[in-house]
Amino acid sequence: MATGDYIGVLDHDDFLSSDALFRVVEALQRERYDVLYSDEDYVDENGQPVRPNFKPDWSPELLSNCMYMGHLVVASKQLCDPPVDSIELFGRHHQVAPCTCSSRAAPETSPA
Predict the structure, then answer these.
(1) Following CA atoms 103, 73, 8, 93 in sequence, which dihedral angle do they give, to the nearest 10 degrees?
(2) What is the pLDDT of residue 10?
């Protein structure tokens, strides 16, 4: 079980930019968000970015129809009440995280 204030989820085949976690911490030091999520980019076999996916601002309505949060999602551990076991999330975080976040997150939550 996670012991920090936030839980981050991403896919097994994702990789983060060298400053991704720094940017998350930087945002959380400015303001305590319920949820942070990032833009993403697909890369080719040489690691070159080829298809950026820029995410919209927080919208529970849109999220109920389109799973736009995507890969790096960092949520307050308080949103996972009852606690969600990491094994429970494995392979299902695309469904579990957005549903939990959209129903419990504060309206001022915004992208990182």
Answers:
(1) 70
(2) 83
